[in-house]
Amino acid sequence: MEEKEKERTYVEDIERNIYDIKDESKDSYRMQEGLTEEIVDKISKEKNDPDWVRELRFRSLDIYNRMPVPDWGADISGLDMDNISTYVRPNTKMSAKWSDVPEEIKNTFERLGIPQAERESLAGVGAQYDSELVYHNVKKEVADQGVVYTDMESALTGPYADLVKQKFMKLIPPEDHKFAALHGAVWSGGSFVYVPAGVKVSIPLQSYFRLNAPGAGQFEHTLIIVEDGADVHFIEGCSAPKYSVANLHAGVVELYVGKNARLRYSTIENWSKNMYNLNSKRAIVDEGGRMEWVTGSFGSHVSYLYPMTILNGKGSSTEFTGVTFAGNGQDLDTGLKIVHNAEDTTSVVNSRSISKSGGINTFRSEVTVNKKAKRAKSAVSCTSLMVDNISRSDTIPAMDIRTNDADIGHEASIGRISEEAVFYLMSRGIEEEEAKALIVSGFAENVSKELPGEYAVEMNNLIRLEMKGAIG
Amino acid sequence: METKEYVINPLPVKTWNHLRMNSAKVDIEALAEKDNIDITAQGVTQKSVNASAIDSGLGHEFDALVTEAVPVFKAFETDADDARIRADIAVHAGEASVTALDITAKDGQTLTFITDLKGDKDASGSVALQVRLHAGKGSVINLIQAQRSGAKVTVFNDLAGELADDASVNLYQLFMEADKTYGGLELKLNGDRTSFISRTGYAVAGDEKMDMNYVVRFVGKKGMAQMKAMGSLSDRARKLYRQTIDFINGSAGSSGEEREEVLMLDPDCVNGSIPLILCAEENVEGEHGATIGQADDEMLFYMEARGIDKKTAIRMLARAKLDAVCAMIPDEEFSEEMAAYLKGKDEYGESEE
């Protein structure tokens, strides 16, 4: 057995299937590559920005130009903004009917199963193609409850314009980091969700982001406000075909969770493996509120992804459940940040990662318990699985505890697939490849069991797909 | 006093800068060797070796500072199978001293090495100690370190070392009193079947600060490391503990464990912990566990029910972290000496030993 272990130094990676099908690029407008004042000005005019958004764009560009590239984290030296087009408008306007969406774009989303999912299990869907929403709809019974689910541009000027102005890029300001500043300068697309006080949306809303254009960036902005006592589940999906040139995703997600409200934010991220996914997500939770993150990260060449939760109200809580799967050519730097800012706050983290075929996983976390967070409790568990001998898995958890009246626990472990478990399954007639896929699926069950059935199936299929050929 | 800023205790892999955990920036005045060391040894030869750069826990900048101040290290060797060396390093008022020691355990030898940084009543300034360990095949080095320099002293305690096949290093550390303590360790488990066990106890009180960086790199196969740090923070004390186990590709069959227990006794103390596991090898097991919190209510209730007032009970719980390490020290004489020192410190505020 030991000799065999030594031999297993390379695990074949495989081609992705439906996600890699490319549409012929038929965009109606593509911004020249690069990032200059002129380009930001063009985007602002193209989007017909309100004055405050236009001002925000130029302020953000100035911050971006002054901020250094992060000196920690995965290597992003292959990302050259001079080669990225920051705005690509598809050849259509946004519609509330799939029949109005151009055939080739509709086919893309059909292949990804979005319209079917909408019919069967979703309260509303937004579909973004390159830089713009091409479809947005919310079920009538949900809209009748006062739930707003619309594209971000409409929200800037619609009935909630003042509220949007009050919240937009306030939780993640452009000063936060270089790619938040980039986002502030060139953002387009994304969704606005407003759930009124006391409204409980029983089935999820979903946004799906598809980046089809090569050498382009996607910078959608998602703003969700869940008022006191309300409850909603938001699902985010994303994918892109693979190109030989770098693509960039630098979205921003800002989530406001009111008193005793609950927001679950689920993500299945399956960007293509030429994507730099430098995404920012942050939630602030009021008294008694609850923020739940469910995250499956499978795609991207490089990821920087650390959803942050600020537990700002007494008795607020958060739970993070995540799995990251890094394969050949992937350097996925993922994790989370939690700030306990009030009494009796609670955080629970259950993170898993799988590294194979030379993939690099880094779990990076921060748990900060501030002085006023008396009786705070935090439990972080992080488990990593190494499938072969050419991959890498690093764990970098930080704890900053500023009160003695807190109970903080942290557990991390790293190891390999149990040979005994593989042997057991093989002795019952299961092929080695399938046995390992089963074990890895079980390892990632923390996430799949938290997803609606069809998404759990999709995630398990992704794992099976990634594990195919993973034997030595 | 002229000082220069140094970046010390660097994390092997950086994280977010806003956490201020990637390294420590410290102003250090020029260090110089002093006549402040007393060596007690049986059957041991003291030699001199020229200083050369090494990867140490406090980092390259500090190592360069040491090798510049101490171009010739004190080195120790013995032909005995079992040897004991004790280095008492005195800390006086207003000094900025540095001591550099190079310890070799030849193949198959067992060597117990004790360092005791002990301050005068009016000790102040800074004291630096760098110890380099070379553990030969099948050798055992027990390194025992006590730090009781005094409440006005800044301490730099730097360790570096390498282990050959079947070698073991056991490290016992008691950090008991300093204004600021900067501790570092970088150990390379180069050989196969190596073992490293560390037990670090500390009590940080008042406005004291402690900043640590321990790195163990698994290079050879079937290495084993267990690092455990346990201590208490009281008053306005601040502590940052960096621990790293690094499984380098090829270190198959190795296992590493980091454990940390932090008792926070007062509302104004601050604890930072950053335990890294770096892994480029499939066939390894790495684990980390930390528990951080205040004194257990049930334990306090139990002690109060037996007539121990709360303040005393809390002090006893804090002392228990140091006592636990003290009891593990394999040198009976030094263990008893430290137990007596702790008892005296506990009863009189400063030791009557």
How is this structure best described in words?
The complex is a heterodimer of chains A (472) and B (353). Chain A is an alpha/beta fold. Chain A has two domains: 401 residues, no CATH class; 54 residues, no CATH class. Chain A is built from 13 helices and 25 strands. In chain A, strands 5, 6, 8, 9, 11, 12, 14, 15, 17, 18, 20, 22 and 24 form a 13-stranded mixed sheet that branches. A ten-stranded mixed sheet of chain A has the order 4-3-7-10-13-16-19-21-23-25. Chain B has one domain. Chain B has four helices and 18 strands. In chain B, the strands form two sheets. Chain B has a 16-stranded mixed sheet that branches. In chain B, helix 3 runs antiparallel to helix 4. Strand 25 of chain A pairs antiparallel with strand 18 of chain B.
Overall morphology of chain A: globular
Structural class of chain B: alpha/beta
* Share of helical residues of chain B: 10-25%
- Domain count of chain A: the total is 2
Low-confidence parts of chain A, pLDDT < 50 over ≥5 residues?
Answer: 1-15
Spans of chain B of 5+ residues with little confidence (pLDDT < 50)?
none
- C-alpha geometry of chain B: globular
Largest sheet of chain B: 16 strands, mixed
Structural class by helix and strand composition of chain A: alpha/beta
The portion of residues assigned to helices of chain A is 10-25%
